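note to self: dont lose this again. the chain is below, predicted strucutre after it. 309 aa total, dont forget to put it in the shared folder this time
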Amino acid sequence: MLANDPAKKLSFKRCISNGDLVIVYERHDNMRAVTVSENSVLQNRFGVFKHSDWIGKQFGSKVFSNKGGFVYLLAPTPELWTLVLSHRTQILYIADISFVITYLEIVPGSVVLESGTGSGSLTTSLTRAVAPTGHVYTFDFHEQRAGSAREDFEKTGLSGLVTVTVRDIQDEGFPDEFAGLADAVFLDLPQPWLAIPSAAKMLKQDGTLCSFSPCVEQVQRSCETLRTSFTDIRTFEILLRTYEVREEKVDKFQRESDGSNGSLPCKRRQCSDGSNVPISPIPSVMARPCSEAKGHTGYLTFARLKCLS
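---
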């Protein structure tokens, strides 16, 4: 559980307490967020799990049901939270998030402005990146979405490091109180070019901006606007390819003779004297691309504010 004390020190508690948020892991594609309640139970295909059995255990523990089935109790890291949060809008995933944080040069102590908040996937990772002394100010025009995101940040213990505000950045721009204070600005808007002039006023000298857009036409228009106040304008598309690693049985003789790891094993082999000798397949680790791969998510356009001098 992400614990945020008055000194804004962000850390993971090692043991689970009543009221903590945990990620219940069944398999890599089946996880859920659960708030621990001493008198509650979790019921799934593996049986019934009592929450009272979880209290006092360390994160990462393997716990058993009444039927002998098991799950793992994991800490709600930003990476895992991205996989289990409610999708109120399209979200950014780990590949894009890690690239954004690196390219925006976000470090502990940074002040980051974000619009819009959406489901809060990126916001959660931004908040951990700026901890313990930085802050993320995130804006969304949709009041209900902003309220849901605020509740999520309370659950994950991040509320002291992130401020959620209802505001239409496209029409109103960022609040003047942040002028010249932001180290980085992130835009996820239908018309980001409308917010770019305001973002330029918010950034410190040499500050960085990133705009996420699903369509290349949005990128083109944003780049035209960026040229007025920004330099080092670059656009990237992050494509992730996942590999599946598993053990298969392969014929040893055939593998050694032709170097093939993908051929089907032969049942028998003929010796020089004409007799047939049975061949026993041996285990071998195989790696191949997954049949289903995530394609285009969006374009990431980065730019750096021009220095006045």
